[in-house]
Design brief:
- By secondary structure, the chain is an alpha+beta fold.
- The protein contains two helices and four strands, in the order H-H-E-E-E-E.
- A four-stranded antiparallel beta sheet has the order 1-2-3-4, with helices on one face.
- A hairpin with a 4-residue loop joins strand 2 and strand 3.
- It is globular, with a radius of gyration of 23 Å.
Length: 95
């Protein structure tokens, strides 16, 4: 009887929770994307020894687990800012 009770309880433990992947969660808020853009401009201005007002962000792409912002300086130097799925800055690449 004890064995039957244990088997019954083990079967009633419910279905296991399926972890939610971050890439499938909701869209990035407008405020977050504006913050990302400003951070990208600040990082590029520091790298290129320029003012943030001389930096243009020209493209924004969303990938499964990250984001990229492309842009250029007033001197037409290209760059890409990379962000993780939560919008945290990862790195700046010169192009």
């Amino acid at each position: 009887m004890t064995l039957a009770l244990l088997l019954t309880l083990a079967g009633c433990s419910g279905s296991p929770e399926v972890p939610v992947q971050k890439a499938q969660q909701g869209k990035l808020s407008p405020q977050s994307s504006l913050n990302m853009e400003q951070l990208c401009k600040d990082q590029a201005a520091r790298r290129y020894n320029s003012g943030a007002e001389n930096i243009s962000v020209t493209g924004f792409e969303r990938f499964q687990g990250s984001y990229e912002m492309r842009g250029n300086t007033a001197r037409k130097e290209g760059f890409v800012c990379s962000f993780d799925a939560d919008g945290q800055f990862l790195h700046l690449s010169m192009r």
